[in-house]
From TrEMBL:
GO terms for biological process: carbohydrate catabolic process; deoxyribonucleotide catabolic process; deoxyribose phosphate catabolic process. It comes from the Eukaryota. GO terms for molecular function: deoxyribose-phosphate aldolase activity. Its EC number is 4.1.2.4. Pathway: Carbohydrate degradation; 2-deoxy-D-ribose 1-phosphate degradation; D-glyceraldehyde 3-phosphate and acetaldehyde from 2-deoxy-alpha-D-ribose 1-phosphate: step 2/2. It catalyses: 2-deoxy-D-ribose 5-phosphate = D-glyceraldehyde 3-phosphate + acetaldehyde. GO terms for cellular component: cytoplasm. Pfam families: DeoC. SUPFAM superfamilies: Aldolase. This is deoxyribose-phosphate aldolase. The lineage of its organism: Eukaryota, Metazoa, Chordata, Craniata, Vertebrata. It is an enzyme of class 4 (lyase). SMART domains: DeoC. Belongs to the DeoC/FbaB aldolase family. DeoC type 2 subfamily. It comes from Hylia prasina (green hylia).
């Protein structure tokens, strides 16, 4: 039941005010800062999404994901033996096999992520989106980053958005799914909130 979604209201001045306050928060320093930065590295998806991607530049990206920080810096921090790697390697579906094979050959368990569902525009028929997702999983992607059809948000088709995301989630099988909302194209903070809620409800 998504009737409540049309009643959502976002207090934009309050959001802007809170965002300004966040910028003034104190940041951690010294060893704490180094620890947070190292943790941040492990959460990053190293990504190449270029039209001229080749197996060789995907292989270079995988090597960088396995060794994101210079060894001498890790030794200085006494973190050289802690297995610091990027969180994932993210590529187009056509390059998933290159990344999977490179990481497997190196004995590395970094997951391969793939954008799908008509990335980046989302202007692709639903059946084509679902096929692209299934192929990426078949090629070895362990995470799928979908994009939503922004037109469904802009025209208030919330049930349609829910169904699209639900079908994409089912197509992922055991692979983890992230939903890219393209917030800059959704028109308002209320639409961002609604799309976020529907994405979560759809799995």
């Amino acid at each position: 039941e998504l009737g409540w979604i049309s009643k959502v209201y976002v207090n934009r001045p309050a959001v802007v005010r809170h965002a300004e306050q966040i910028k003034k928060w104190k940041t951690v320093k010294g060893n704490w800062q180094a620890a947070w930065l190292l943790k941040a590295v492990t959460c990053i998806d190293l990504t190449t999404l270029s039209g001229d991607d080749t197996p060789s530049n995907v292989q270079r990206l995988c090597f960088k994901a396995m060794h994101p920080i210079r060894e001498d810096l890790l030794k200085a921090l006494d973190m050289h033996d802690k297995g610091i790697t990027a969180g994932a390697v993210c590529v187009y579906p056509a390059r998933v096999s290159d990344a999977v094979n490179t990481l497997k050959a190196a004995g590395c368990n970094i997951p391969v992520a793939s954008v799908a569902a008509g990335f980046p525009s989302g202007q692709t028929p639903l059946e084509a989106k679902l096929t692209e997702i299934r192929l990426a999983v078949e090629y070895g992607a362990r995470e799928i980053d979908i994009v939503i059809s922004r037109s469904l948000v802009l025209t208030g088709q919330w049930e349609g958005l829910y169904e699209e995301i639900r079908l994409c989630r089912a197509a992922c099988g055991d692979a983890h799914m992230k939903t890219i909302l393209a917030t800059g194209e959704l028109g308002s903070l209320a639409n961002v909130y609604k799309a976020s809620m529907i994405a979560m409800m759809a799995g």
